[in-house]
Design goal:
The protein is mostly helical. It is built from 6 helices and no strands.
Length: about 140
């Protein structure tokens, strides 16, 4: 036997389905006439419905943007111990890449890059990215 909440939800769904089906049975002119009788503007109602559909469609996009902003903020505010010597930085990069490859990080595509030719000022950025990638939780992969 259904609980009271389930019965209510089922009755509500049946009512809404019935209303939706009744709208399918009437012509556009009849709908516009009914809306006009209530003093509403069809264009206003159309815009409300279009905005609701657009909002619903963009919900995942909005959630993804928020997640991206949180990740970016976390990355920008994180602090890492980075060696001062460029040669030590290059060694650390190679070591971290080896570690990530050993963990089967399929998102890492830099394994064959030669960091000996990279300008020294770019090494800190690469190290920060590798630290962030290495500390990324399993669920985000």
């Amino acid at each position: 036997m259904l609980s009271e909440d389930k019965k209510y939800e089922e009755e509500f769904a049946n009512l809404m389905n019935g209303l939706a089906e009744s709208v399918f049975d009437i012509s556009d002119e009849e709908i516009e006439e009914e809306i006009g009788e209530d003093g509403d503007d069809t264009e206003d109602i159309r815009q409300v419905l279009l905005n609701a559909v657009k909002s619903c469609r963009q919900k995942k996009l909005s959630q993804a943007r928020e997640s991206y902003k949180r990740s970016l903020h976390s990355y920008q505010t994180a602090s890492f111990e980075i060696p001062q010597n460029p040669d030590d930085k290059r060694k650390l990069i190679q070591s971290m890449i080896g570690s990530l490859i050993a963990q089967n990080q399929s998102s890492l595509t830099l394994q064959f890059r030669d960091y000996q030719d990279m300008p020294d000022e770019d090494l800190d950025g690469v190290l920060k990215q590798l630290f962030a990638l290495n500390s990324k939780p399993e669920s985000e992969e």
